[in-house]
Amino acid sequence: MVALFVILFVALLLGIDLFIQARSRRYPIMAAAPRTAIAPQARESVRIPKSVFFHPGHTWARMQDGEHLEIGVDDFIQKALGGIDGIELPAAGEFVRQGDPVITLNHEGRKVRLVAPVSGYVRSVNADAVENPGLVSENPYREGWLMMIEPAELAANLSILRVAESAVSWVKEEIKRFRDFLGASMPQPAAVGEAMFEGGAPVAGALEHLDETHLQDFEQQFLR
Amino acid sequence: MSHAILVDLTECVGCGACRDACQQIHHFPQVEATSLDAQNFTTLRLYENPESGTETYIRQMCQHCKEPACASACLVGALEKTKDGAVTWDANKCIGCRYCMLACPFDIPKYEWGSNNPKVRKCTMCYQERHVREDYEVDDAGYVIDRKGKRVTVDGREITAEERDTILEMTTNYEGNRASACSVACPMEATIFGERSELVAEAQRRIRENPDSYVHKVYGLKEVGGTSVFYLSNVSFESLGFRTKLEETPLPEKTWRVLEKIPDIVVTAGVALGAVYWITNRREEVRRFEDEKKNRIKTKS
Amino acid sequence: MKNALQNITFWKVVAAVFLLGGLTAAIVRFGWGLGAATNLSDITPWGLWIGFDVVTGVGLAAGGFTLAGIVYIFNLKRFKPIVRPAILTAFMGYCLVIVGLLFDLGRPWSIWHALIYQNPHSVLFEVAMCVMLYTTVLALEFSPVVLERFRMKRALKIVKAITIPLIVLGILLSMLHQSSLGSLYLIVPQKMHPFWYSPMLPVFFFVSAVAVGLGMTILESYLSARAFQKTLETPLLRDLARIMIGILLVYFTARFIDLLRRDVLHLVFESSFETAMLWLEVALMLFIPLLLFNIKNWGRTRQGLFFTAFSMVLGFITNRLNVTMTSLERYYQQNFGVTYFPSIGELAVTIAIVTAGFVLFALAVKYLPIFPHHEEETVLRFDNAAERSPSPQISGKPAAELQRH
Fold first, then answer.
1. Structure confidence by residue, pLDDT tens digits, B8-61
2. CB-CB: which of A10, A126, A176 is closest to C314?
3. Where are the domains of chain A?
4. How confident is the model over C264-274, as a mean pLDDT?
5. CA–CA dist A25, B41 (Å, integer)
6. Residues 6+ apart with CB under 8 A from A219
7. Sign of torsion, CA B286 B289 B293 B299?
8. Helix (H, G, I), strand (E, B) or coil at A91
9. Contact B236, B57 (CB under 8 A)
């Protein structure tokens, strides 16, 4: 009897909790303030975490447990693409060199290739992200990590990586540069539509509207 | 010398003298209790045989097992099987975990639930009382002292000369031997206190000489490895509510079989953990080395 | 002021009520004794406090040694971020177990007697010693968090130097007392229902403790994600769930063989209360987790993993309460006509202790460096590179949610 009672009691508490959660979701006013406050902006924002090292080719690396580096693609490229429906990565055990294009992102039949931010051995790849690329869109710096690297020449690699304030100002520049690039390479502004493309300002998924040649230009200018 | 008690239910007339004596010597209120509790170490319960209509009084008390589960369970060793045969409880050690109550196959130890300094209570076979000696002196304050000059305590209480004499009277039988108060009080031959092996022989003799008046079993002889309280009956023990499904293995063996393996487990598991630690770390080193070698070949080509 | 009011959520009010209830019951317990506060009796000497607060509680705190072993002994470094929260909850768990024990002991002030009056034949003595030592080991394992906070470099260096021996010692102690909690019941073969009395009890207790340690870690990670946006990566949690389910499969295979060998397997289709409770245990601990974990897509979300782990933990609690209570109910009923059910006071104390666990966990996650740091970040507008106020969340969940609507 006691066991049954305890289980039912815990189940009841869980039920109440689920009910409260469901209610707060149905009536946004009940939800925790920050969640609704930032949501409308997220799609049009680029996030730059303080502890992440950025490679000029829009990939990042972060120290993990003192001997491995987690690497992935940054929020900028992820937003520019507008979505990711396929990821190709080297296999575990392979050696990758900083600056070599080793990560391929697919989106609606288009491919972009990104470089490794550091040199080293691939210790593991995030199979979950490969299977479910939505993880990268959700958070490219956490669940959306791509590979675990055991660095081979970290000190030398670090010289071209940017972090914190330097990363922020670099991403700012990149956004501006991207705007100029779009303005110059957009085939027919009218075809895209004004609402989507106010004065050449980048919007999420801007790359979808580029043709193959310009996409290659983008790769050369932004991802190397 | 290991003592024991033989209870012959066929001799019992249900007068209640044993119960009354028990309550008196332990300073408990005089009530006709039918179930054990912190103030009733022995009880009498009437059983009416539905077939023959005969009446049997069932006397219940601690079995004083040879290898008591309670004593093995007690983490501080407050319960102890004395050489005397009695299983006793030490108030100074007990922390009140009540594992003894759970462990006892006869559900004997009881607790002072209403107290804020509760004691575990059960029959002690009048262990302390039987060891109060006639030649103990009285000190200036009027309390009884032993031969080393230390005040004698019975059940946590210092005793006066008057109490000493009461105890002596209640625990000395007609033969002049010290015995439990219940056995001294018994007017019949229903409760006998004595040497364990002699009582076993006596019980077996009674069954042998009057085979028709007894079920052919001495209860307590083999249960949980043997006890120091034996019962004879003319009604099956099962119908009287005795625990009859007990194994002959002493219960402490069940836990000791596990506990005795602990040193082995610690050593084996310790070595195994160390080995795993060494292997996993070594494997990582080897892998690192192999990868580097592979890389050197790669860069050369 | 307005902010303060907003912070008072439903659960905070509930927690306060629970804690107050526990306090009231504590006053009755220590003022008027066990008899006044509990439904314990001469027939049923052990109740909810031992069955849940101690036997179940120690099991639920098994995450500490499980994860320490996975990371430091089996060298699976990717789980390292989980070790700290697991050790913390283990430490808090053991402290709460000791609090629960102090409520249950008739003479709590003499608890230290276990140190001087040793009875090596007592399982409870072994449990007491191991729990005492292991709580100390956990405190040491957890101390780097506190030492880091207060920048005590020398002490930190000493503790770090003895990490591996400490971990090994912790695992050994855990093996001993987790299994011994099962051995406690070996001494009452004639009282327990054959579903739960088995000479293998110590082994079963240990194996299920390892599994529930993993389950609890997943739960804790989910809770901290909900409340503080501090969490672990979902793939890591999924790996934990996978290991957990593997252990559970081994565990239930062993239990099945055990029932078969003791010739009581036919009882599992008998209609009785015990049979229902056994099936409840198996369903919650094995079937439901197995099912949830394998639901495509959902099973690999944080929420899916939460429900998988939650069910397993519930099943574990059922198992421990079945061993400590359900299995004895028939014996008490048949021999004494007594059925134990905890009093309001017992329930209040147990609920308060569990609540205290939640509160302490929340405080620790908030104020100690336990989960990976909440990362500071800059957020730029994608259209004009202007800075936005940083998002308070590390997970990009809001963005995903918005896209769905």
1. 999 999 999 999 999 999 999 999 988 999 999 999 999 998 888 889 999 999
2. A10
3. 2-42, 46-224
4. 91
5. 64
6. A112, A113
7. positive
8. coil
9. no
The structure tokens listed for C306 are: 């939460």
Q: A31: Cβ–Cβ under 8 A, 6 or more apart, which residues?
A: A24, A25
Q: Confirm if C165 and C237 have CB atoms less than 8 A apart.
A: no
Fold of C14-369: Formate dehydrogenase/DMSO reductase fold (1.20.1630)
Q: Is B135 exposed, middle or buried (0-12, 13-18, 19+ CB in 10 A)?
A: exposed
Task: Look up residue C119 and give its two tokens.
Answer: 């009875």
CB pair distance less than 8 Å for A175 and C339: no
Q: With contact defined as beta carbons under 8 Å apart, do C64 and C91 qualify?
A: yes
Determine phi and psi for A88, rounding to 5 degrees.
Answer: -120, 130
Residue in the structure block whose two tokens are 């031992």: C50
* Interatomic CA distance for residues C328 and C135, integer angstroms: 30
Q: Does C246 touch chain A (CB under 8 A)?
A: no
DSSP C268: G
CA of A51 vs chain B CAs: smallest distance (Å): 27
Taking an 8 Å cut-off on Cβ atoms, the answer to whether C340 and A148 are in contact is no
- Interchain proximity C78–A148, CB inside 8 Å: yes
User: Is the pLDDT reported for residue A111 higher than 70?
Assistant: yes
pTM of the model: 0.80
Q: Are C401 and A28 in contact (CB under 8 A)?
A: no
Contacts of C134 in chain B (CB under 8 A): none
Tokens of A39: 């949501």
Q: Which residue in chain B has the smallest CA separation from C118?
A: B76
- From chain C, the residues in CB contact with B101 under 8 A are 42, 45-46
Q: Which CATH number fits domain A46-224: 3.40.50.300, 2.60.40.3550, 3.90.226.10, 2.40.50.100?
A: 2.40.50.100
Residue C359: is it exposed, middle or buried by C-beta count within 10 angstroms (0-12/13-18/19+)? middle
> What is the per-residue DSSP string for A133-155?
THHHHH-TTTTT--EEEEESSHH
Lowest mean pLDDT among A33-37, A48-52, C69-73: A33-37
ipTM: 0.90
Which pLDDT band, with edges at 50, 70 and 90, does B295 fall under?
low
C163 token code pair? 């990490």
Question: Residue A211 and residue C114: Cα distance in Å, rounded?
Answer: 79
Inter-chain residue contact A95 with B295, CB threshold 8 Å: yes
R_g (Cα) of chain A, nearest Å: 21
Listed range (A3-17, A164-178, C290-304) with the worst mean pLDDT: C290-304
List pLDDT tens digits, range C8-22.
578 889 999 999 999
* Alpha-carbon span C57 to C317, nearest angstrom: 9
CA angle C398, C401, C403 (to 5 degrees): 110
The string of pLDDT tens digits covering residues B109-135 is 999 999 999 999 999 999 999 999 988
Tell me, what's the pLDDT at B149?
Answer: 87
